[in-house]
Amino acid sequence: MNDEIDISQLETAEILELIQDDLYDGLADEVVVSVKELLNRDMTPYDVLTQGLVAGMAVVGNDFRDGILFVPEVLMAAKAMKAGMEILRPLLVETGAPQVGSMVIGTVKGDIHDIGKNLVAMMMEGAGFNVINLGINTDADAFIDAIREHNVDILGMSALLTTTMPYMQVVIDALKDQGLREQIIVLVGGAPLNEAFAEEIGADAYCRDAAVAVETAKKLIAIKRGQLT
Amino acid sequence: MTTIQSILEKSGYVITDGAMGTVLFSSGLDQGDPPELWNVDYPDRVAAVHQAYYDAGAQVMLTNTFGGNRYRLMLHNAQDRVAEVNQAAAAILREVVSKNDNQAVVAGDIGPSGQVLTPYGELSFQEAKEGFAQQAEALISAGVDVIWIETMSDLEEVRAAVEGARQVSADIPVVTTMTFDTHGHTMMGVSPEQALETLTPLRPLALGGNCGNGPEEIIEVIQKMHAVDPDMTLVAKANAGIPELVKGRPVYRASPATMADYAVKSYQAGARIIGACCGSTPDHVKAISQALAAHTQR
Fold it and tell me: Considering only alpha carbons, which residue of chain A is nearest residue B117?
């Protein structure tokens, strides 16, 4: 942690900016100190989340999308964000703060690649979503059980192989059979995918990268909740 | 003995093979199943792919061991079979080459661990190095001529693989290529120039780019590397375009003619070891081989 800065002397707005910088630089300890200071100043956990962590991760996401930051920087930022979230999570539950949204995510059956999928999970958490990460090699039953159990807004599916991406269709068909398709937003991603594929299998959107996934998730949730048309 | 250097001295360039997985899938490999286990279960089918690439003009061929390290095999509960599948793969390719008067080089293929190294991920450098050394040991003991490290995105992981191989054999030639598929960088943010500068001190026989978003992307990578060091032997092994899904099956759109055009452009950009990656077939390699022969005879 940077001993040069005595954050108790800073304005609240300055601390919020500091959180953004520290997230960008992946400094977990510094983020934790700032989060605690803001809570001491009676800022609500929800405001600390949205104005501090989520705002900071949005900058990280934009620069990742634009090719200014790459996976290593995003992973470090996500770790710093998680450290801040660990303090906020119980308080958010306690205070009944509004939920940004929730997601079940997994790499589809037959596919064992999880770096990109985990990156999406982290960026979604960074945007304030509650994420249930089912890992790799996930079959339709596992997706459906998790969707039922956690009653989530979004299903995210990932595949790196051209041979496994068709399984996404199997999952979407299973959602329809179970009468769940209408209530859930389906996002798909992975190196070999594209928009035409997402459309062909009846997903709601293809997300090129983790930053696009977050943007798309927010937009589609807002539409679903009637906040956008 | 045929070596990469001896071919380079003779003709000025080297043709490598193309995709293994793509061709095995059309021979009945199921989606999601690891191609490496076929070295043991269906050695004849793997050998047939090598022979087809040899017939198409490939002078360097890669063993069917891309996912043959313990970390990748672990995902299929086959982590105890590293020695078995890698030795089998090297033996299959060695036999194909022997049958053809040893006119090709046997390259032992090593792909990424599939994990993220510390501090960004969980896998330590030492663990990665041990995993790669174990795979290299099996490949080298079964007689590969060169270790071929490919599709890497993290420079530290490349170093772990090179050091792992050298730990087994201090003088085994090593070729290493990375995948520059993210805004002109690797997924981990490595530029072609940075790759060249960081990997040159590891004394690779050659380095370059493979896989990624089709031929155009790799030509740019070669240009950038060549600009930094015109003396380095550069490798281009592009995918046959970006796959599209047609009726549930992936189709790579780049035709053999497109890949032939890419091969000549890669050569002009400075690449001297040229072949193909995902989505390619012996037909693509044949077109590459013929195009380069025609181009260099002019």
Answer: A72
Q: What are the chain B neighbours of A75 within 8 Å (beta carbons)? A: 116, 120-121
CB atoms within 10 A of CB B144: 27
* Strand ranges inside B37-101, DSSP E: 60-62
CB-closest option in A75, A111, A164 to B120: A75
- The alpha-carbon gap from B115 to the nearest alpha carbon of chain A, in Å, equals 7
Residue A64 backbone zone (phi > 0: left; psi -120 to 50: alpha; other: beta): alpha
Domain CATH number, residue B214: 3.20.20.330
Using one digit for the tens of pLDDT, what is the confidence trace for B209-234? 999 988 999 999 999 999 999 999 99
What's the CATH code of the domain at A143?
A: 3.40.50.280
| B242 contacts on A by Cβ (under 8 Å) | 192, 194
Task: Tell me the CATH number at A24.
Answer: 1.10.1240.10
Together in a domain, A117 and A76: no
| 3-class state of residue B267 by DSSP | helix
Q: Which domain holds residue A187?
A: 102-224
Count structural domains, chain B.
Answer: 1
Q: What's the distance, CA B58 to chain centroid?
A: 13
Domain assignment present for A86: yes
How far are the Cα atoms of A108, B89, B270 from residue A160, in angstroms, in the given order? 9, 24, 31
ipTM above 0.90, yes or no: no
Domain that includes residue B208, residue range: 4-297
Domain count, chain A: 2
Please tell me the pTM assigned to this model.
0.89
B182 neighbourhood in chain A, CB within 8 Å:
67, 70
Nearest to A115 among B116, B181, B185 (CB): B116
Residues A125, A152: one domain?
A: yes
Measure the CA–CA gap between B178 and B187, rounded to whole angstroms: 10
Residues 6+ apart with CB under 8 A from B55: B282
Show which residues on chain A lie within 8 Å of chain B, measured between beta carbons: 66-67, 69-73, 75-76, 109-113, 115, 136-137, 161-167, 169, 191-192, 194, 196-197, 200
Of B123, B131, B141, nearest to B86 (Cα)?
Answer: B141
pLDDT digits (tens, 9 = 90+) for A49-104: 999 999 999 999 899 989 999 999 999 999 999 999 999 989 988 888 888 899 99
A68: which 2 tokens?
């200014």
Buried b (16+ CB within 10 A) or exposed e, B194-209: bbbeebeebebbbbbb
